[in-house]
Specification:
The structure is a single chain. By secondary structure, the chain is an alpha+beta fold. It has 6 helices and 5 strands, in the order αααβαβααβββ. The chain has a 5-stranded mixed β-sheet.
């Protein structure tokens, strides 16, 4: 072995440390799967969101990675859970609009992608829904990062969420 190669091997051995050695013992961890199970995130790859049974709406929209959305972003742009939508609206159609706007914005690239989605929601007065709708533009952001096993995943959130 040459001297340079031997030094490099020794240096590599010296700097190979586990995450625990660098940062200390893990105090707490919360996986993406747990967040989906707890309802903090909504998996958009859920087969119930598709137009056609057996297909994945994210794949239909041309998105290759798993996509999840925070419950707050989902409620503001797709649907509040157990709340009726305005006439001529359905969850699949609204989700398709969000995914289409994301896909167009993603073509611009960047570490954090921000994109607007215009939605029609019921007007509420004093906490009660009245028979009137309003148009609202909501800005969302999308981040691509590692999933629970290091695979690429996309998370869609409101701008003030982490």
């Amino acid at each position: 072995m040459r001297m340079g190669a031997m030094n490099a091997a020794l240096m590599r051995e010296e700097f190979e440390m586990s995450m625990e050695e660098v940062f200390g013992e893990v105090i707490s961890s919360y996986s993406r799967a747990q967040a989906i199970e707890d309802g903090v995130l909504v998996s958009l790859n859920d087969p119930s969101f598709t137009f056609r049974p057996g297909l994945n709406i994210c794949a239909e929209a041309g998105i290759k990675f798993p996509v999840a959305m925070t419950i707050a972003a989902f409620a503001k742009t797709v649907s509040e859970l157990d709340t009726p939508l305005p006439p001529c609206q359905d969850i699949s159609g609204r989700l398709w609009d969000v995914l289409t706007m994301f896909r167009m914005a993603a073509k611009r690239g960047g570490a954090e992608i921000r994109f607007p989605v215009t939605v029609i929601n019921w007007v509420c007065v004093g906490g009660k829904r009245i028979n009137r709708t309003k148009r609202e533009t909501v800005v969302l952001k999308a981040l691509c990062g590692p999933g629970d096993n290091g695979e690429p995943v996309i998370t869609v959130l409101l701008p003030d969420e982490d």
